[in-house]
What does this fold into?
Amino acid sequence: MWFSLAEATFPALPRTARRALCLEFEAQVIAAYGRHLLVRDADGVSHEARPFGRRVQAVCGDRVLCERDAHHGEIHVKSVLPRRSTLARATLRGTAEAIVANLDLLVTVFAPLPKPDPFIIDRYLCAASSAGMSALVLLNKADLIDATDPSVAEWQTWLAAYRAAGYETLVVSSQSRQHLEALRALLAHRTSAFVGQSGVGKSSLIAALAPETDIATGALDKTEEGRHTTTASRLFDLPEGGALIDSPGVRDYAPAIDGLEPHSLGFPEVDQLATGCKFLDCRHLREPGCAVRLAAEEQRLDARRYESYRRLRRIRDELIEAQGPCKRS
Ligand SMILES: Nc1nc2c(ncn2[C@@H]2O[C@H](COP(=O)(O)OP(=O)(O)O)[C@@H](O)[C@H]2O)c(=O)[nH]1
Ligand SMILES: [Mg+2]
Ligand SMILES: [Zn+2]
It folds into this structure.
């Protein structure tokens, strides 16, 4: 316990000076670009840091235990403290890879442009529900919505199905600032991450909500290859309390299968309907007496959401296959 030893030995030194003598300290990861990390200590000071060893997999939002390597002037992240929640994705090999940690709310963003894919939104929502986080579906770039566009009715149907499933929805514009105050109220005092396809306006929304908090990431802003790290995850403080995490845009997303609720796959409406299924281990596909399939046939369950459920079942089966025989369940 370096901290308490230093406190006991140098009680008259100011707090920051005492901490400077401590080799070990707790911090929060506020930016992550692969294994390049930026951590913020209890005094609000940011430090570049590296995970110590392959086993340490720290992501943005993590609370970590750091150690100052006085000889090399480096800071090592020794371990990741227990997480309140984890948003993870499945790799092609079927393993789980954490993306961000300690979230209260997942904000899934779509926009008229780029062409939205509701199945990606669904899969993020499944990950959130399975991990016990709240989720919000945002339609951004409201200023681009042309009421005569036939797609508008389709987006309204998606949003209605999300509300019926129990998710909050909001239509906003980072450009015209429409409904940004309502969004701000939903985000206050929570840690939220913005996810979704590239170009939907995640970074623009975060800049509009947290304009004062453009943290300096120093060398993290440039990778060794000189690329600008818009692909890094970064945490921004909200002026009213709480934090927003900007995440890299994705082309596709599959939730980590081990984290998915095995019966409903994280679809709240499937979970509710499943109480009426004949078999407890019903997969809600072709099983006789399936209340979920019946609800879809009778249009009490949104047809597109049910199709999304079936697709995620297939993805899950494929990923379990990819894990190999020893991990198959
Ligand atoms: N018209 C309009 N364009 C927006 C809005 N929000 C973002 N954009 C534009 O969409 C593009 C992508 O935004 P960006 O924030 O980088 O998206 P990200 O990849 O999701 O982080 C940029 O050209 C933004 O100026 C909006 O509310 N309305
Ligand atoms: Mg961005
Ligand atoms: Zn069923």
Notes: DSSP finds nine helices and 13 strands in the chain.
